[in-house]
Write a structure and sequence with these properties.
Length: 74
């Protein structure tokens, strides 16, 4: 609920427009998301969480690319 108040408030206070607002939010959120994906893949591969042959499957990389742009949970 608090986020529902804080996000619009930061937009209203910025007075920069919608595109710069979303660009700033993306630069704040997406690097952490991408780092999380990389860490989870490395840890899952190292601990046997999934078979290493998964890394050569095209569907895995298609899913990962889509998830990196839109966001998803493993």
């Amino acid at each position: 609920m608090i986020s529902g108040f804080l996000v619009p408030r930061s937009y209203v206070e910025s007075n920069a427009g919608i595109v710069p607002f979303f660009a700033r939010r993306a630069l704040r959120i997406y690097p952490a998301l991408w780092l999380q994906y990389a860490l989870v893949i490395v840890l899952m591969a190292a601990t046997g969480g999934f078979a290493l042959r998964t890394l050569v499957e095209p569907n895995f990389w298609k899913w990962l690319g889509a998830a990196a742009l839109v966001g998803s949970n493993f």
